[in-house]
C-alpha cells in the first residue's frame, strides 16, 4: 500500500469515527469524575468488566463486534479545548477550575485493555473486555465503550443468524440504509452485517470506507418512468460477435413474440413500458443486466381513485419481457445476470421463474439460462427465510433491509460495564435479582473443547490461579447454583483474552473486515448444531472454577447485610 493509499484509509476511519470522542458519553460520567477528583482518588486504580447477561434473538450465542472501534477510541482519547469550554458552561459553577485542567491532560496511556478476539462467539457473563487503569479514566470510558460494542455485536449476531438460516449456497445482500437509525446506524449496520456473513451492501459509502462489495439493481420507479419503446432515444447495442451496432428493441420484440407462444403468456398482457425500461437498462448495463420483474401484477386489480380505473398487467409481463431482453442480449454476445422479485408469494414466484428459465434454456439450447440468478426482497426477516426453506424456494440471493439493520426482533443487546476491583481489592455488586450480581475481581476466561473439536464450556478463573491444563479433570461450577457442577476433561483449551491496549498503543495486529468475517465462520463451526439451531437451542454452559466460586460466595455473604426481625 502506498503512503497516499495508507493516508486515505486513515482518513476514512477518521471520518467515520469523528463522533466517537470523550464527550460521546453520559453526563454522570463527568460528574462522577469530578466527585472522584474531589475525593482525591486520582491515584486509585480499578478494573471493569464489559459483558452481557442474555443472548439476543432467543438464541444461545452472540458474535462479539466493535473491538477495533474501541481501540481507535482509546488512541484518540483526549479532551479538546472546545470540549473543556463546553463542560465549563454545562457543569455547575461550583466546579473548581483546576478540575478542567486535570481533564485536559487525561489520556488512555495508563489503561490496559484485555479482550476476546473480534468476531468470536461469546456467551453471557463472560467479559468481552476487561479494562484496567486509573479509576477516573476507566470510569470515563464506560458509555463510549458500551455504545461501540452493543450495536456492533447485536448487528453481527443478527447477520450471522440470517446466514445460518439462508445456508452457505445463497447470497445475502444488505439493503437497509434507507430504513436504518440514521447515517451512523446505516454505516454500522452495513459493516457488521458484512462481518456477520452478508456478501455485500447497497450502501456506497460503506463500500468505500470498509471495502465491502456493493450491489444493487433498480427500483420500480425506473420501470414506471417508461411508457413505450418509441420514447427510447438510444435503441442500439454493439454486437460482440461482429462489432456492429444492432437495434435491441427490434430483437427483443421478435423474441417476445416467440416466447409468448412458448410460455403461454399473451403479448397483450405484457407491458410495453416495462419492456422499454428493461431494454433501456440492458443497453446501459449489458454485462450486468438484472431486472425487477414484479412491477405489474395481473392477479390483482389496482384501483386508481374514486373512478376505480383498473391497471391490468402481470408477473407474466415481467418474466416475458425479461426473457425477451435476455435472449436478445445473448444474440449479441452478452449474458444477463438475473431477476429480482420484490413482492408476492416469493416461494411460488421464484419456482415459476426457475421453471421458465429452465424451459427457455432447453428450448433454445442455452444451458446458462437455466441458472439465472433469482433475487428476492420485500421485508424479509429470519423467520421468512426458514419458511421459504420449508417451501423449497428457488431463490439464489436475498436482499434484506429493515429487519436486519434495525434488529427489529430485539433492538438492544444490553451489555453492561461493571466495577470488579479497586486498588487490588475485589468488588461485588449485589441485587435481589440474581442475574444482576457481578463476579468480583480480575478474571481470565478459557474455552474448553472436546475430542470432537466442539466447544464444551467456558471457564472463568481468578487471574491469580494457574491456568487450566488440557486432558486433566477440571471441576466446573455454575456461578450461582451450588448443585450445578461437573468434571470436564477437555482435549484442548483456548485462553480467550489477549492484551490489546497497553502503554498508549494497540498491542495486536488488527485484522481487516474479511479476516474478522472468516473468524466468525470459524468460531461458529466450533459450536454444536443444537446450540445454533433456530428452535429451542441448547444453552451453552459458562462456569467458574472452584476457587472463584468459593471466593465469590464468601464475598457475597460478607457484603450482604444481616436483617433484623422485630
TrEMBL record:
Residues 442-551 form the Nicotinate phosphoribosyltransferase C-terminal domain. InterPro entries: Aldolase_TIM, NAPRTase_C, NAPRTase_N, Nic_PRibTrfase-Fam, Nic_PRibTrfase_pncB, Nicotinate_pribotase-like_C. It catalyses: 5-phospho-alpha-D-ribose 1-diphosphate + nicotinate + ATP + H2O = nicotinate beta-D-ribonucleotide + ADP + phosphate + diphosphate. One of its GO terms (cellular component) is cytosol. Keywords: Glycosyltransferase, Ligase, Phosphoprotein, Pyridine nucleotide biosynthesis, Transferase. GO terms for biological process: NAD+ biosynthetic process via the salvage pathway. Pathway: Cofactor biosynthesis; NAD(+) biosynthesis; nicotinate D-ribonucleotide from nicotinate: step 1/1. Its EC number is 6.3.4.21. It comes from the Eukaryota. It holds the Pfam family NAPRTase_N. Transiently phosphorylated on a His residue during the reaction cycle. Phosphorylation strongly increases the affinity for substrates and increases the rate of nicotinate D-ribonucleotide production. Dephosphorylation regenerates the low-affinity form of the enzyme, leading to product release. It is an enzyme of class 6 (ligase). Residues 23-150 form the Nicotinate phosphoribosyltransferase N-terminal domain. GO terms for molecular function: glycosyltransferase activity; nicotinate phosphoribosyltransferase activity. Catalyzes the first step in the biosynthesis of NAD from nicotinic acid, the ATP-dependent synthesis of beta-nicotinate D-ribonucleotide from nicotinate and 5-phospho-D-ribose 1-phosphate. Helps prevent cellular oxidative stress via its role in NAD biosynthesis. Belongs to the NAPRTase family. This is Nicotinate phosphoribosyltransferase. It comes from Aphis craccivora (Cowpea aphid).
Amino acid at each position: 500500500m502506498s503512503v497516499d493509499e495508507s493516508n486515505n484509509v486513515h482518513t476514512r476511519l477518521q471520518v467515520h469515527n469523528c463522533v466517537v470522542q470523550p464527550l460521546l458519553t453520559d453526563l454522570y460520567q463527568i460528574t462522577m469524575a469530578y466527585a472522584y477528583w474531589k475525593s482525591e482518588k486520582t491515584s486509585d486504580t480499578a478494573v471493569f468488566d464489559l459483558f452481557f447477561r442474555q443472548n439476543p434473538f432467543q438464541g444461545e450465542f452472540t458474535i462479539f463486534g466493535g473491538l477495533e472501534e474501541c481501540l481507535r477510541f482509546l488512541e484518540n482519547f483526549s479532551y479538546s479545548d472546545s470540549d473543556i469550554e463546553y463542560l465549563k458552561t454545562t457543569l455547575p459553577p461550583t466546579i473548581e477550575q483546576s478540575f478542567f485542567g486535570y481533564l485536559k491532560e487525561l489520556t488512555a496511556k495508563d489503561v490496559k485493555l484485555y479482550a476476546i478476539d473480534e468476531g468470536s462467539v461469546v456467551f453471557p457473563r463472560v467479559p468481552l473486555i476487561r479494562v484496567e487503569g486509573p479509576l477516573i479514566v476507566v470510569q470515563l470510558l464506560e458509555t463510549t465503550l458500551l455504545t461501540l460494542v452493543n450495536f456492533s455485536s447485536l448487528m453481527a449476531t443478527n447477520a450471522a443468524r440470517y446466514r445460518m438460516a439462508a445456508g452457505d449456497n445463497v447470497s445475502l445482500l444488505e439493503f437497509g440504509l434507507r430504513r436504518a437509525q440514521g447515517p451512523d446506524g446505516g454505516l454500522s449496520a452495513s459493516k457488521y452485517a458484512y462481518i456477520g456473513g452478508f456478501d455485500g451492501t447497497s450502501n456506497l459509502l460503506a463500500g468505500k470506507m470498509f471495502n465491502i462489495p456493493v450491489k444493487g439493481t433498480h427500483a420500480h420507479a425506473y420501470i414506471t418512468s417508461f411508457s413505450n419503446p418509441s420514447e427510447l432515444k438510444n435503441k442500439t447495442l454493439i454486437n460482440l460477435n461482429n462489432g456492429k451496432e444492432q437495434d435491441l428493441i427490434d430483437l427483443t420484440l421478435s423474441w417476445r413474440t416467440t416466447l409468448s407462444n412458448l410460455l403461454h403468456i399473451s403479448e397483450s398482457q405484457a407491458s410495453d413500458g416495462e419492456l422499454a425500461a428493461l431494454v433501456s437498462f440492458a443497453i446501459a448495463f449489458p454485462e450486468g443486466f438484472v431486472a425487477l420483474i414484479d412491477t405489474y401484477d395481473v392477479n390483482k386489480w389496482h384501483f386508481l381513485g374514486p373512478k376505480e380505473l383498473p391497471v391490468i398487467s402481470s408477473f407474466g409481463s415481467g418474466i416475458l419481457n425479461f426473457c425477451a431482453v435476455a435472449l436478445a442480449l445473448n444474440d449479441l454476445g452478452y449474458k444477463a445476470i438475473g431477476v429480482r422479485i420484490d413482492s408476492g408469494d416469493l416461494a411460488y414466484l421464484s419456482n415459476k421463474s426457475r421453471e421458465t428459465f429452465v424451459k427457455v434454456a432447453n428450448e433454445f439450447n442455452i444451458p446458462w439460462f437455466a441458472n439465472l440468478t433469482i433475487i428476492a426482497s420485500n421485508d424479509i426477516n429470519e423467520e421468512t427465510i426458514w419458511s421459504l426453506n420449508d417451501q423449497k424456494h428457488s431463490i439464489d440471493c436475498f436482499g434484506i433491509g429493515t429487519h436486519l439493520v434495525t434488529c427489529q426482533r430485539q433492538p438492544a443487546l444490553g451489555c453492561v460495564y461493571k466495577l470488579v476491583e479497586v486498588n487490588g481489592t475485589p468488588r461485588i455488586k449485589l441485587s435481589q435479582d440474581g442475574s444482576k450480581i457481578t463476579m468480583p475481581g480480575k478474571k481470565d476466561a478459557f474455552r474448553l473443547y472436546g475430542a470432537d473439536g466442539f466447544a464444551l464450556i467456558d471457564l472463568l478463573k481468578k487471574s491469580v490461579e494457574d491456568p487450566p491444563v488440557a486432558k486433566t479433570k477440571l471441576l466446573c461450577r455454575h456461578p450461582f447454583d451450588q448443585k450445578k457442577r461437573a468434571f470436564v476433561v477437555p482435549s484442548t483449551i483456548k485462553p480467550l483474552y489477549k492484551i490489546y491496549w497497553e502503554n498508549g498503543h494497540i498491542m495486536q495486529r488488527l485484522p481487516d473486515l474479511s479476516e474478522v468475517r472468516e473468524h466468525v465462520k470459524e468460531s461458529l463451526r466450533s459450536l454444536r448444531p443444537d446450540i445454533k439451531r433456530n428452535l429451542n437451542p441448547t444453552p451453552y454452559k459458562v462456569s467458574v472454577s472452584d476457587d472463584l466460586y468459593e471466593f465469590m460466595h464468601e464475598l457475597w455473604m460478607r457484603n450482604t447485610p444481616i436483617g433484623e426481625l422485630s
